[in-house]
Design goal:
Number of helices: 3
Distance between the termini: 84 Å
Structural class: mainly alpha
Low-confidence stretches: none
CATH topology: Methane Monooxygenase Hydroxylase, Chain G, domain 1
Number of strands: 0
Strand content: under 5%
Amino acid sequence: MPVTSSAKKALKQEKRRAKENKRTRRQYKEAIKSFLKKPGEKTLSLAYSLIDRAAKKNVIHANKAKRLKSKLAKIKRKKATPRKTNQKSSSK
């Protein structure tokens, strides 16, 4: 346990910040999960927003935020465009 008054105050601040960081982390993870269940423009936008907010608050690293957003965009592109089949035409 902290002894000095400044150490006691620091402990209180740390607990408060940890609680906020946990909330922020949970929010962006839930947004990603909801996007993966139902990929749509609205859920993608929400996930981007929450990921950016977490990066801005330094809950996650900026490069991790970019990596997550790239992953979601890739999934969105894959769902939006139908797969092309590689059938060669036999016109000789």
